[in-house]
Amino acid sequence: MPTLYVVATPIGNLEDVTLRALRVLREVSLIAAEDTRTTRKLLAHHGIRAVPAGRQARLLSYNEHNKAARIPQLLAALREGDVALVSEGGTPAISDPGLDLVAAALEAGFAVTPIPGPSAVTAALAISGLPTRQFTYLGFLPRRSGERRRLFASLRHDPRTIVAFESPHRLRRSLEEMRTQWGDRRLAVCRELTKAFEEVLRGRISEALERFAEPRGEFTLVIEGARDVAAPATEEARRDLLQRKGAGEPAKRAVAEVAKRYGLPRRQVYRMWLEIGPEPAD
Which terminus of the chain, N or C, has less C-beta within 10 A? Predict the structure, then answer.
């Protein structure tokens, strides 16, 4: 039976591809590529001809803009032989128009086989230093600020690590909204993974805002999940308050900043402030 192969391809470094993926790309009758230019570079790098001798071109563009017209063409091609689906980079069908082709192929009765490999999600998660046993994947964050705020509010108490993609021109706004909704959580900001200018910042949201004043490149964000806000208070927040009170910081400012930093209700933080005791005498 003809098969649709869902082939993971490099997210940056052209060497990050499996031997099986290269074999499949050599053998299939047609390659459906989200970006044919990127795929041509990959094929050329590994000595695979897009137009084998005596055969027709094997590359066909398939993306968000032309998928409605392309799906019938690709299903017709599957009746004649195997087809490979590749995205611009990483694993197809994950936050990717390939999902629609996979669903259509399955509905038509074709076999669909994964050729696993690179993924920005798992790459960023693995090097983040944050818990990986469970995580929530958000894909690309909503473009509109109101939608982002509602999404972040819905996840305020989710204890799982969060993974998301964001564009450079919206990165700062998203980070600011995260800090407002969640407090100054720990995170890893992964920029241009596996590429020449790869950079990973591990720290707090406030540190990311300071570092990326003019963001450039592709960003994968891995953010710490919520802590148990139902508990009396975290020791970390209590120590922060103790240091601020010892330094003579005014109660109003200290409470507001600690509540924002740790994602705790202001009333709860104010009670902690009172529990610490009187401010030191001059």
Answer: C
Residue 51's domain spans which residues? Answer: 3-118
| Alpha-carbon gap, residue 270 to 280, rounded angstroms | 17
pLDDT tens digits, 148-200: 999 999 999 899 999 999 999 999 999 999 999 999 999 999 999 999 999 99
Q: Could you tell me whether strands 199-204 and 161-166 are parallel, antiparallel, or unpaired per DSSP bridges?
A: unpaired
> Do 55 and 71 share a domain, yes or no?
yes
On whether residue 92 sits in a domain, the answer given is yes
Residues 30 and 103 in one domain: yes
Distance, CA of 256 to CA of 247 (rounded, Å): 16
| pLDDT single digits (tens) 66-121 | 999 999 999 999 999 999 999 999 999 999 999 999 999 999 999 999 999 999 99
Looking at the structure, tell me whether residues 34 and 140 fall in a common domain. Answer: no
Cα 33 from chain centroid? 21
pTM above 0.90, yes or no: no
For residue 166, give both structure tokens: 């964001």
| Distance from C-alpha of 142 to C-alpha of 181, rounded to nearest angstrom | 15
What's the domain count of the chain? 3
